[in-house]
Amino acid sequence: MEDAGKKMNVETGDKEILYSRAIKAGKRIYYLDVKRNLKDDLFLAITESKKVQSKEGAQATFEKHKIFLYKEDFEKFIEGLSDVIGYIQQHNGDVSTKPANSNDPEENDTSDSGDIKLTIDF
């Protein structure tokens, strides 16, 4: 996956979004949006947007799927995500989940620790 989005504070448009990041991955774009609920708690809204071309080829539409992840579930979600990514890497070859052209020294660490590092900042 290619990290296409920049970390940004969204002040215009959808006022519910406090922080957003977009990740381009082929024909899909994943949006990670931090929002606030009515109880003033922050949560994560993950949206997958996929470009779908009509059979006639005239006009493309976007198919969207959303999930909402609440703070009490973050640890279990990260643990589960790390587990399944590790399984895929072990059974499908060691496919890197990091962009090859990253300038972040942490992301360019090529040590073979076998650990999966996920960083989600709120």
TrEMBL record:
Positions with biased composition (Polar residues): 92-103
Keyword Metal-binding: no
GO molecular function: purine-rich negative regulatory element binding; RNA polymerase II transcription regulatory region sequence-specific DNA binding
Keyword DNA-binding: yes
First and last residue of the signal peptide: none
Keywords: DNA-binding
TM spans (from-to): none
Region described as Disordered: 92-122
Xref: InterPro entries: PUR-bd_fam (IPR006628)
Pfam families: DUF3276
Family, as annotated: Belongs to the PUR DNA-binding protein family.
Name of the protein in its database record: DUF3276 family protein
Origin species: Macellibacteroides fermentans
